[in-house]
Write a structure and sequence with these properties.
The chain is of the alpha+beta class. The chain has one domain: Alpha-Beta Complex (Sulfite Oxidase, Chain A, domain 2). 19% of the residues lie in helices and 21% in strands. The strands form two sheets. Strands 3, 4, 7, 8, 9, 11 and 12 form a seven-stranded mixed sheet that branches. A five-stranded mixed sheet has the order 2-1-10-5-6. The radius of gyration is 19 Å and the shape is globular. The chain binds the ligand Nc1nc2c(c(=O)[nH]1)N[C@H]1C(S)=C(S)[C@@H](COP(=O)(O)O)O[C@H]1N2 and molybdenum atom. Molybdenum atom binds next to loops.
Length: 300
Amino acid sequence: MAYRWKNTLSSQDVTPEAAFLSRRTLIGAALAGLGLAGAGLPADAESLTPNTWEDITRYNNYYEFGTDKGDPARNARMLTVAPWTVRIDGLVDRPGDYAFDEIMRVMTIEERIYRFRCVEAWSMVVPWNGFELADLLALAGVQPGAKYVAFETVLRADEMPGVRYRVLDWPYVEGLRLDEARHPLTIMATGIYGRDIPAQNGAPLRLVVPWKYGFKSIKSVVRITLTDKEPPTSWNKANAREYGFYSNVNPEVDHPRWSQATERQIGGGLFSPRKPTLMFNGYGDEVAGLYAGMDLVKNF
Ligand SMILES: Nc1nc2c(c(=O)[nH]1)N[C@H]1C(S)=C(S)[C@@H](COP(=O)(O)O)O[C@H]1N2
Ligand SMILES: [Mo]
């Protein structure tokens, strides 16, 4: 398989948020004029209005840096993000330590504006930059016996003040079925608004699976393992009754302690009405087929 060259984002290419938004509007209008709006994209991809840089980078969940929403923005600057390597191992043809810089050299970086829905019932819209996880998996060569992908976050007690509290069993781990991992909507994000992804959002690369609750989108990934068994996941280990392996966004399956029918949009202001939560977070046309015939109440 041939790999495309990355379209490099240098500091000169950084898109100020206002210019970015007007550019999106222009592109949307141009596409609509040609009758091409949304071709090959989720129907409303062009009409999603991203949250501000401030919303996205100051209201975070990254428990390794503390459990308050403002802790990651304050504490994650301690994280050393370069050099960085990702170990890819298990059922792959080319296991090894892949340097982040080398990955970036061979991947094509795209912009993906996705809804992001946390299991705590708040949501944002984030303009990610990144590459499809499928392309990274192809680089390592997935073997026929592989059925799942396991992910692990870096664990550094000296840089992560939150890990002295046993809120979770560190390191943070997550997992996907192989077909979910290879779905074209599943990306490894390396940027937001055309800038490098900030540490509090999971620098230098983090998973983004837009039809699942936010906790599946594991940050600062250092290891990706192809396996034939469903891998353990941090929130399921912490509370299996409340957090399943699949964790697809589903307004009809409530969390045992709160409703999942609606969500609070971050940045909407104090009086903005809650918005109905969409099945698969609005990506059902693309992903419902992955779960055909499955009981989504049992497999929550
Ligand atoms: N390593 C790690 N990854 C993580 C988390 C975490 O605490 N540690 N929190 C998860 C949760 S609950 C959410 S909602 C998202 C938040 O991502 P954001 O801060 O970029 O919005 O990251 C997910 N990935
Ligand atoms: Mo979350």
